[in-house]
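Hi F.,

I've been meaning to write this up properly since the lab meeting, where we talked about keeping a consistent format for the predictions we share between groups. The idea is simple: the sequence comes first, exactly as it goes in, then the C-alpha cells exactly as they come out, then a line or two of notes. No screenshots and no reformatting. I'm using this chain as the first example so we have something concrete to point to.
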Amino acid sequence: MNDDGRRMHTAGMIVPAGERRRDRRQRATATRRLEREAMNSLARPRTPSPDDDAPPEGYLPAAGEPGPDGLRSWLRFRAPAHQDTSATLAAGYPFLAEGGLGTEGLYIGQDLYSGASFVYDPWVAYQRGLISAPNMVIAGIVGSGKSALAKSLYTRSLAFGRRVYVVGDPKGEHSEIARMVGGRAITLGHGMHTRLNPLDEGYRPKSMSDAEWAVQVATRRRELVGALTETVLGRPLAPVEHTAIDVALDAAVRSADVPVLPHVVDRLLAPDADDDPRLAEDGRQAAHALRRLVLGDLRGLFDGPSTEVFDPTLPMISLDLSRVAENDALLSVLMTCSAAWMEAALTDPQGGQRFVIYDEAWRLMRSASLLRRMDAQWRLSRAYGICNVLIFHKLSDLDTVGDQGSAMRALASSLLALAETRIIYRQESDQAGPTSAALGLTGTERALLPSLGVGQGLWRIKERSFAIGHALHPAELAAFDTTARMR
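Output, unedited:
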C-alpha cells in the first residue's frame, strides 16, 4: 500500500484502496472497450484532404499501402498442385470430356464418354489441319461392325458429291449397295460373260493432250503386262524378259485396232522375222505365263475385248470378285487388272473427291505389283483427291504379306504409316498387344479393345482418341447386314 492510501494491483495497475472486486472488473471492461474503439478508429480508412502532404500517423487502409511501401512480395501466389483420381475429380469437373471434331462432315454416331454426336470427314479434317493424309484403316474381328462403318461412311458421302470405287470385293457385299445408289457392280469370274481387256486405253482425263495420252497408254500397257506376268510367274522379270515383252507388245498394238492379250502371246512365242531370233527363247517363260490367262485355267476373263466400259461419272463402281475368291492366283490377277483399269480415273486430278475401298486387304496385298500400285496411290492421295480405305480383321494380318524384312513387308507397313485415321473395332485379347505396338496405343486404349461391343470402335485420328458408337438408320441396317444367312 502507498502512503496516500492506494494499493498496487498485482498486474501493475494502481487502484484506490478499499475498492471492491466488482468495481475493478467494470473498470477493466471499460478499458478494453476504449482500446478496441481506438484501434478501430485507426484502421478505418480516411480520405486525406488536398492540403495533407502525407497520410496522418497511424493511417492504414484496409487493403494495405500502395506501391513498394506496401511490403508486398514480388513472387506470384502459387497454390500447391493436387492429384486425385478421375472418379473423385468428376465431382468438381463433371463436364470434362473430349470436345470432338466439330459439326462439319459426316455423322458417324455418339461419343461413348461425353454422349455428344461425333462427326468426321477426311477431306474436312484435312482442310482444317487435323490430319495431313486422308487415308484410313479399319480393323476388327468378324461381326464387330467394321464393314457397316465403311458402307455408311461412303454412302453418306454421296450426298456431298463424292464417288466410290471398290477396287476389289472378294465377298461381293458391296454389289447390292452399288446398285441401290445408282452405280454399277461388275461381276468377274468363270462362267460369266464379263471380260476385261488389260490392254484397253481406259478413261482419258479431259485435261490431257494427245501426245501425253499416247505416252500414258503405252506406259500403262507395258507396266500391266509385266505385272500380270510377274503375278503368274511368282517372281520378278529378268531383263531379257522385259525386252521380249516390250517388242511383242509393240507388235501387237501395231497389228490390231483393239489389241488383246492373245496377240501379245502370239508375238512372244513367234516373233516377227525382222526381230532378233533369240527373243523367242528369252520370252519363252513369260509367254507361257501369259498363255495361262488366254488358254489355261484362267481363260475367259482377259482374252478378248472388254464387255464393260468404265464410267467414272457413276456414283459408285464395285468389282465383285466373289466367284474367284477361293483362287488366290486368279484373285491377284483380277485385282491387278481391275486396279489398272481404274487407275486412269483415279489419277485424274479433275475427278473430284473419291473413296477407294480395299476390302479384305490382307488378301489383296499379297500381289507385289498390286501392292506397289497401292503404295503409289496412297502417297499421292492428296494430289488425286482420293481417300483410300483398307479393311481387314487385325493389324497382324500385315505380317502375312511377304517375308520378314522383305520389301513387300515394308510396303505393307508403310500403308499403315500413311493412314492417320485408324479405326480399331473389337480385337481379341491376344491381338491387343500387337495392335497397341503398331499404333502406339496407351494402356487405357489397349485395355478398351477387347471390351468393345458391336458397332463400337476406337478412333485414332493422328494423336487424338475417341471411343465412338456407330449409329445406323434402320434402312441402312437392313442394307448393310451381312449376317442374314446366319439368322
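Notes:
The CA atoms of residues 101 and 252 lie 55 Å apart.
Residues 1-46 form one domain.

If this format works for you, I'll send the rest the same way.

G.
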